Amino acid sequence: MRRLLATAATIGLVLSGAAAAAGAPSGRSAAPDRGAAGYAAIAWGACESPGLRARGADCGYLSVPLDHAHPGGKKIKLAVSRVRHTVPDSKYQGVMLVNPGGPGGSGLTLSVLGEFVPGDAGAAYDWIGFDPRGVGESKPALACDGDYLGYDRPPYVPTSAAIEKAWLKRAKGYAAACDRAGGTLLDHLRTTDTVADMETLRIALRAEQINFYGFSYGTYLGQVYATLHPERVRRMVLDGVVDPSRVWYDANLDQDVAFDRNIKIYFRWLARHHDVYGLGSTGKAVERLFYREQARLITKPAAGVIGPAELSDVFLQAGYYVFGWEAVASAFAAWVHDRDPAPLKSLYDQGSPQEEGADNGYAVYLAVQCTDVQWPASWQKWRADNWRVHALAPFETWGNAWYNAPCLTWGSKAGKPVAVTGAKAPPVLLISETLDAATPFPGSLEVRKRFPRSVLVEGVGGTTHAGSLFGNACVDDTIAAYLATGKLPKRVKANTSDKRCEPLPQPDPSARAARMERSGSLGRLELQALVSTR
Fold first, then answer.
1. Choice among 385, 436, 476, 498 that is catalytic
2. From 49, 138, 216, 330, active-site residue
């Protein structure tokens, strides 16, 4: 499964300036005291991130056991941030841990998320951001090969034995590099390890219970935490809900079909805005153009670096959410009409930086998913399953297969996933859009069944993944009411969502272009350049 990140929240934080720097604790820190159960409390101090400093946040490190089965053994450090409540203490509602997904996503700056909750409902909480073990500013951080996601890789679709062998060799090499780089850490990066860290963090914060806001993979963290520690859960918002019955091999095959559907929706959107982008007047025409250009890139990569695999990765973001639709369209149009590769390369670089340590998120993603549960050991099964799905859904299937292929030879032993149940959990708020491709909607219904007091809010017909607190009043006001008072919409008896909202809207570049044309400020090419670089 591709990295399940809270894209909407991440974009919101970037716009707010909160993610302007890595957010690590600075050199100044207070002396730690001792927390409950013998764990050292967090040594709070100033943050390096300008965005966090502007909000008066505290940053620090929490020592946790590398192996929670041996709490007296080796320790590692989690980077933690805190934005305190601003209401009177009499109205304080406790700590709110936040996870952005991934696995492998950095959550250190997500402690500012409370300010995005409508009606100041987030002001009653201490918002706690943290980098999970192995991630970002936590120590040690896992990185294996910063050049692995470099340019002009082999085509994803293995139409020849040579392509298949090349990808298998790459995947095996990356797994071996992680084995060398990770050492004993690689044996302790399962979801259950991070859940144990969350419990340690609760203890260090001296909280009887936690509130939790999880996006994407973070919803699975929340599910497992609520299963193992139901008495410690107060309120929980899970946006972009992972299906616990499909972790993780089957979830990838589900994703492949869903992304193929969503990319066709995107192609139809491009066709509706043929006047802006000139890429085809029907969805089928745009689709043919995409695959034709992709085939051309096999023998002649754009600028020598953007081949068919890289083009797929650029378009993949359009399957996740609506926020980047215009940027992808403009970049592709610049290539098709002017053979200008720069916008495509810029978008690829944003999602796949190549430098030392840049693969941290990917390395942790694999370390978690490859060891949460045993993947099929036979490449023959992988090959048969992916060719079968590719026949129905060619856009992303093989790209997703190779993304996860290091799990074939991963060096650490896999565990068994927790049997998720919310039978003892308090009321939980679930959020999903109907056509979410990263975490398909049936997973939300599955979790709704397993958590009998949960309520599911559906963005009907939407394709955005984990897009709460991004301006959809119907969804965001529901979150605010829940965080303020615990109030949730009434749960219905059918196997369906409990509240239905309009989804986040698709962008309208035609309206934008018309406004700019009336102002006389920008022509078509200038507009494309603006959109592709904003």
1. 436
2. 216
pLDDT tens for residues 12-43?
444 344 433 334 444 333 333 344 445 568 98
Q: Which residue has the tokens 């999602």?
A: 351
pLDDT for residue 518 is more than 50:
no
pLDDT of residue 19: 39
CA 162 to chain centre: 32
Confidence (pTM): 0.91
Residue 221 has pLDDT above 80, yes or no: yes
Q: What is the C-alpha to C-alpha distance for residues 164 and 35, in angstroms, rounded to an integer?
A: 52
DSSP string, 55-97: TT-EEEEEEEESSTTSTTS-EEEEEEEEE---S-GGG---EEE
Catalytic residue chosen out of the listed positions 465, 476, 497, 498: 465
Tens-digit pLDDT profile for residues 149-175: 889 899 999 999 999 999 999 999 999
Query: Residue 196: what are its φ and ψ, rounded to 5°?
Result: -65, -35
Residue 149 is given by DSSP the state T
28 burial level (CB within 10 Å; 0-12, 13-18, 19+) = exposed
- Measured in degrees and rounded to the nearest 5, phi and psi for residue 461 equal 80, 0
Q: How many residues are listed for the chain in this entry? A: 534
Assign 239 to helix, strand or coil. Answer: strand
Enumerate residues 6+ apart whose C-beta is below 8 A from 282.
268, 271
pLDDT tens, position by position, 309-345:
999 999 999 999 999 999 999 999 999 999 999 999 9
Quick check: 451 and 242 in contact, CB under 8 A?
Answer: no
465 part of the active site = yes
Query: DSSP of 87-139, one letter per residue?
Result: S-GGG---EEEEE-EETT---GGGGGGGGGSGGGGGGGSEEEEEPPTBSTTSB
In the chain, the domains with their CATH numbers are 1-140+207-247+424-503 (3.40.50)
216 flagged as catalytic: yes
